[in-house]
Design brief:
The protein has 224 residues and is mainly alpha-helical. It has one domain. Helices cover 83% and strands 0% of the residues. The protein is built from seven helices and no strands. Helix 2 packs antiparallel against helix 7 and helix 3 runs parallel beside helix 5. The longest helix has 50 residues. The termini are far apart. Pfam families: YhhN. It is found in: Membrane. One of its GO terms (molecular function) is alkenylglycerophosphocholine hydrolase activity. This is lysoplasmalogenase.
């Protein structure tokens, strides 16, 4: 199995399996999560290609993160401002240290990377805010939201290491670090999304049952 297959097949298979067996989840949410994984698989393939593969891969990952955002942004309450400031600070450091140099030589490719970095940072801030503060449908510090938050943090770490390594700055055990954090990140994001959808379905079923029971009680009292 070549390098392209090692990176692409696991996420591609996971996207197909998740869409096929996740019948208990919302069709729309399941589709968004599956498309996010599929875009990641395509990005995995593109990023291993020579020349501008990194930038085409970043474009695919950007699409994937947009789909991921669709799965949970409606659940967010308040933003966690300290987390927002930390992510902005780290992103600015990476931008000035690395992307600013690429912006002069490859403006279009750098614009793609900046857009992708913005989307990934948004995912980190939004998922972290949902975990810390909760939202209309979630209590603060729920386990499913922790998994999603950790997934995006690892995604951020993986891609930061990838960009740093790509511009020629030595990263210890770069390939193992990038691949391991990336695959774990995808798995954690998927687990967090699955648990969120399951809990939402359970809550909805419980609410429906309660409403039906209350209606039944009202009808019984009216007959008496």
């Amino acid at each position: 199995m070549n390098a392209n297959s090692r990176k692409t097949l696991p996420v591609l298979i996971l996207s197909i399996l998740y869409y096929a067996v996740g019948s208990s989840f919302s069709n729309r949410q399941r589709t968004y999560a599956s498309l996010g994984l599929l875009a990641g698989a395509i990005g995995d393939y593109m990023i291993t290609r020579p020349s501008d593969g990194l930038f085409f891969g970043a474009a695919c990952f950007s699409v994937g993160h947009i789909f991921y955002l669709f799965t949970f942004t409606h659940r967010i309450g308040d933003l966690c401002l300290p987390l927002l400031f930390i992510v902005i600070l780290i992103s600015l450091v990476i931008f000035y240290a690395i992307l600013a140099l690429l912006l002069i030589v490859h403006p279009i490719a750098s614009a793609i990377m900046i857009t992708y970095s913005f989307l990934l940072s948004t995912c980190v801030v939004f998922s972290g805010s949902l975990y810390i503060h909760g939202g209309p449908y979630d209590r603060p510090r729920q386990f499913n939201n922790l998994l999603r938050f950790l997934g995006f943090l690892l995604f951020y770490l993986s891609d930061s290491a990838l960009i740093i390594h790509h511009v020629g700055i030595a990263v210890p055990v770069a390939e193992k670090l990038i691949l391991s954090t990336y695959f774990i990140a995808q798995y954690l994001i998927l687990c967090g999304s699955s648990l969120s959808l399951s809990s939402s379905s359970s809550s909805l079923s419980s609410s429906s049952s309660s409403c039906c029971y209350c209606s039944y009680q009202v009808q019984q009292k009216s007959r008496k």
